[in-house]
C-alpha cells in the first residue's frame, strides 16, 4: 500500500551511506585531530518526546489516512510533524530498520527535516573502517533536510535533499548526488541528481508541504 519495501530500503541505504561518507570525509579533512574528538562532535543526548507523539495519535492518524484513501474524506488531509512521527514510531514498525531509533521529524516553511539515532552496529563489515569504528560512540545522530517536488510520473514525488549531516558535520553539497548514486537510488524520469524518488500511496494523487504540515491530496 505505502511502498514500504522501497521506502525502507531507501531509508536504510541513505543512513548507512551518509555515515560512511561523513566518516571518510572527516578523516580526510581533519586527520587524527578529528577522531579523538568524535564523541563530542556526535552528541547522543536524549531528546524528550513531544506530547504530540503517541500510539493514540498514530492510530487516529492512520484512520484518517485510510478514510482519505477510501474516498470517505474528500479533498485533502493535512498532517503535522507529530502525527507523522507517531505513525513512524508506532504504526509502521517495519519502515524503520533495526539499529535506527528515535526518528524525529520537523517541518517549517515547506522544508522537512528527518533525524534519527543510528547504531554503529548497523555499519557493514569493512576492514578499512575497523580503526574508525573504535572511536565512535554507540549511536550517532543522523539528519537530512529536503523538500517535496512533483515529478512527471504522477506515481512518484521527489524528495530534493538540501543538507545531510551526522552530528554537527555537514557534507559538501557537491557530494549529495554522489551519495544518492552510490545508494543505487531508483531513477524516475525528471528526477534531479540531488533527489530521491518517493512512491505515492495508492489513492493519493499528490503530496506537498505547506508551512509546517504535510498535505495529502486524494485522487478521488
Radius of gyration: 18 Å
- Helix fraction, binned, reads 25-40%
> Quick one: overall form?
globular
Tally the beta strands.
9
Query: In percent, how much strand structure appears in the residues?
Result: 25-35%
**Cα-to-Cα separation, first versus last residue:** 16 Å
Mean pLDDT: 75
Q: pLDDT under 50 segments (min length 5)?
A: 30-48
Count helical runs.
6
- Characterize the main sheet: 6 strands, antiparallel
The assigned structural class equals alpha+beta
Task: List strands and helices in order, with pairings.
Elements: H1 4-30, H2 38-41, H3 55-69, E1 76-80, H4 81-91, E2 100-108, E3 111-119, H5 130-133, E4 139-150, E5 156-166, E6 169-170, H6 175-182, E7 195-199, E8 204-210, E9 213-218
Antiparallel strand pairs: 1-9, 2-3, 3-4, 4-5, 5-6, 5-7, 8-9
Features:
220 residues, 6 helices, alpha+beta, 6-stranded antiparallel β-sheet
Short description, anyone?
With 220 residues, the protein is of the alpha+beta class. The protein is 31% helix and 30% strand. The protein has one domain.
Question: If you had to describe this structure to a student in words, what would you say it looks like?
Answer:
With 220 residues, the protein is of the alpha+beta class. It has one domain (4-218). Helix content is 31%, strand content 30%. It is built from 6 helices and 9 strands, in the order H-H-H-E-H-E-E-H-E-E-E-H-E-E-E. The chain has helices spanning 4-30, 38-41, 55-69, 81-91, 130-133, 175-182, and strands at residues 76-80, 100-108, 111-119, 139-150, 156-166, 169-170, 195-199, 204-210, 213-218. A hairpin with a 2-residue loop joins strand 8 and strand 9. It starts with a helix and ends with a strand.
Amino acid at each position: 500500500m505505502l511502498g514500504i519495501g522501497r521506502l525502507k530500503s531507501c531509508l536504510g541505504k541513505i543512513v548507512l551511506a551518509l555515515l560512511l561518507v561523513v566518516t571518510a570525509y572527516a578523516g580526510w579533512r581533519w586527520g587524527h585531530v578529528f577522531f579523538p574528538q568524535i564523541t563530542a562532535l556526535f552528541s547522543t543526548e536524549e531528546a524528550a518526546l513531544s506530547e504530540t507523539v503517541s500510539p493514540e495519535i498514530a492510530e487516529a492518524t492512520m484512520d484518517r489516512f485510510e478514510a482519505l484513501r477510501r474516498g470517505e474524506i474528500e479533498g485533502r488531509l493535512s498532517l503535522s510533524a507529530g502525527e507523522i512521527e507517531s505513525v513512524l514510531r508506532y504504526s509502521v514498525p517495519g519502515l524503520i530498520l533495526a539499529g535506527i531509533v528515535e526518528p524525529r521529524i520537523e517541518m517549517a516553511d515547506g522544508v522537512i527535516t528527518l533525524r534519527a539515532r543510528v547504531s554503529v552496529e548497523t555499519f557493514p563489515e569493512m576492514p578499512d573502517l575497523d580503526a574508525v569504528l573504535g572511536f565512535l560512540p554507540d549511536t550517532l545522530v543522523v539528519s537530512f533536510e529536503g523538500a517535496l517536488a512533483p515529478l512527471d510520473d504522477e506515481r512518484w514525488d521527489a524528495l530534493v535533499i538540501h543538507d545531510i549531516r551526522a552530528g554537527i558535520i555537514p557534507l559538501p553539497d557537491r557530494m549529495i548526488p554522489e551519495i544518492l548514486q552510490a545508494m543505487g537510488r531508483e531513477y524516475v524520469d525528471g528526477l534531479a541528481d540531488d533527489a530521491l524518488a518517493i512512491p505515492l500511496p495508492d489513492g493519493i494523487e499528490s503530496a506537498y508541504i505547506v508551512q509546517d504540515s504535510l498535505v495529502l491530496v486524494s485522487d478521488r
